[in-house]
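Quick illustration, no need to memorize.
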Amino acid sequence: MKRIKQGVFFETGYSGGTVGAILCSGQTILVDAPLKPEDGRMWLAELRKAGASQNRLVVNLDPHPDRTLGTQTLDAQVLAHRETGRQFRRRATIFKALKQESGSEWEETSGLSGLRWIMPKVTFSEHTVLHFDERELRVEYHPGPSPGSCWLVLPKEKIVFVGDAVVPDQPPFLAQANIPSWLGTLDHLASREFRGYTIISGRGGRVGTKEINQQRRVLKEVSTSLKKLSKLKKPGPEIDWLAGKLTGKYKLPPRRRSLFSQRIKYGLHNYFARHYQSGGKFLNNH
């Protein structure tokens, strides 16, 4: 568990993604959940040692199973964007680990079947503000990576948890993305408003200008390439080639290469199917 400032922590060592915690008197704010139940219990134990309250609120930064499926273990109320609630309602109440080959962490994790999705108790559309002690927490909608993507911002402490807006050292999830919106979100993160902030990625811990720019370059290359391929009648093989090219840009550990390769391939095919028609017309369906 890594301390950012007094009462603010994050952890990158659990399956699924990076989790965070803000400890206030009488309330613990959790940012996402470890994927595996045993990791969730370990996370709570670590926070108790740090003086965390048993009154817990989880902020889901988006509806991705990697960061939301383990919420059941945390025994907490949930706050999320209203689109995250919609996504949950479309799913079976009890999770069944049927592999989708989307390159997600949960697809390589056993023991998840039977977990329940925990519906948000509180939802919002653009932003909501929480006050605990003298601490202000803003939960803001920042579209692009997926439906319901949001950030948790601590203005006084200059800390922001950004979920999948920046995914360092691994391919991003593209299947439900909107790249123009995502690029706008990255521009906002790189603006003067967030100068001097500690930025915590939902899949890699601390990130900065270097990682933001890298994310921007990857997304621009994807957008430009898919637009060109939209002029082809059967672009499937070319999309597969593009997936291999993009995967080759990352220095991936051998044990993760297959998972991440599948992630980018799945993402490109689904992004193309959702956003483009014959002739290369972009579908603005967000």
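Residues 16 and 48 are 21 Å apart (CA to CA).
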